[in-house]
Amino acid sequence: MGRESNLWMAFPGCHRYAEACATSVEGKISSVGLSLLRVRGGESALNRGGDGGCDVKVIPQEGAELLDSDLQVKAAGRVRSTNPLRFAPLTGILMTDPAGALLVRRVRVRVTSGPDRGREALLEAGTLLVGTHSDNDLILRDPQVGKYHLEIALVAGGIRVRDLGSEGGTYVGSTKVQHSVFPMGTEVSLGRSTLQLLSGDIPVPVAPSERTGFGPVLGQSLSMRTLFALLDRVAPADAPLVLEGESGTGRSLIARAIHASSRFAASPMASIDFRLPSHERPTLSSLAQRTDTFTLLVDRIDKATPAEQTALLSLYERREEGVLDARIIATSNIDIRREGAEGRFRKELVPHAAAVRILVPALRARAEDIPLLVRQFAREVCGAELDFENHDFDRLLARDYPGNVRELRQLIGKALQVDAPPPQLPKSGLARARAALVMPLNARPKPPPPKVARDRLVEFFERDHVEQAHKRLNGNVAEIGRALGLPRREVIKTLKRFSLPCPDR
After folding, report:
1. By percentage, how much of the chain surpasses pLDDT 90?
2. Is the pLDDT at 62 greater than 70, yes or no?
3. 453-475 burial string, b = 16+ CB within 10 Å, else e?
4. Number of other residues whose CB lies within 10 A of the CB of residue 226
5. What is the mean pLDDT of residues 446-472?
6. Burial class (CB within 10 angstroms; exposed 0-12, middle 13-18, buried 19+) of 197
7. In what order do the strands lie in the sheet with 193-199?
8. pLDDT of res. 253
9. Cα 101 off chain centre by
10. Could you tell me what percentage of the chain is helix, strand and coil, using 3-state DSSP and rounding each to the nearest 5?
11. pLDDT (0 to 100) of residue 381
12. Helix 404-416 and helix 370-382: axis angle, to 10°?
């Protein structure tokens, strides 16, 4: 490798880019999330990690130097003073449209006027350089365009255009651009040339998964298998996302499963819950100053105050600039895109936090998953498989679950709970004091045997079903009978069995 050669490097340890990194480092490595570094007088080393990722390191020789005078490196402002040098491809290329369809974000940069009219380049991720030098992605012959004139990048809010210190400048309309974000369709002028930024987004087909779980999250319904397929697509990417749904649907579990399936899996996972008082959670400023690699769970982002939303916006921007090496996953009970459009949530934060919006279905929308969930929760309590009949779940399937999966889990735990007998301590003296120290007063009692547990659950399901009907219908025996499909005599007998108020006959 010559002293004046160029090296294009990938982010160290980036997942799933092993094939791209295996290409020659003498040329341009073209893949998602690659960034530019120009080195003079250095050697390169490419290490393939055991997890399928790869590291590219620059090992400076004596007298080697970074070309800090190169405008594109200085303007990018992303060089870290560590060795190996790192560039973070932190802007995800995935997004969801308003209908929830998954898209791969791309920008077609087309020359619409000037000596190179009709030339076009495709930006899929990372950055695209425009200028007259042969190192650029879009090479122009316009003599009024600089060697490295401008940089174009995909960011959450649109397309970032950054002038790299050119003499002639970069303009959108009559406004001179230094560093701004623009929407698709914008026309950018440089020298005698005009570039048009056009959408090249392509849909990603997501067929329902064949498996019935994603990490600890279970489901065999169509809605859940579709969710699992979507999670399989987005988990390995770095794109920020928001998990939207009702409380109790398992959003935090899904967030942790995404973390475990991402390139951040070996890194810590931090969280900030905006339902908690400010003194009981970490500050956003402390999270923004972290220098390690981590996943951040932003729980209930819809509860953040306007001031906290401003701080969150800064956090997301630091991530996109490569200052913060973090994957950010938010949860929300409401559609923050709609809230942003209607002025109840900071509009500038929405494209950052909800680049990918994933809807987690309520339990009532996937009632066919209840038997699977009951079997799993009962297995967790009893440590064994319970022999249920299909009709055992009829009562649970008819129930409404405002608390969703969390409520179902709590019901199973309540049905199978065993009251521990009070500990038998010696009456007095040293023996009693000694026993009190060593005896586990709150020891968890042994779960019931599988058959007893199954009968107890079925009895609990029936009691709960009758109690719900009794409460909903204000104890009206005739109405309860119609709801349960029982004659009056059986209704009264059932109400008495469960000690519920009822007439004698």
Report:
1. 49
2. no
3. bbebbbebbbbbbbeebbeebee
4. 18
5. 86
6. buried
7. 120-123, 107-113, 193-199, 187-190, 171-172, 175-176
8. 96
9. 16
10. 30, 25, 45
11. 86
12. 40
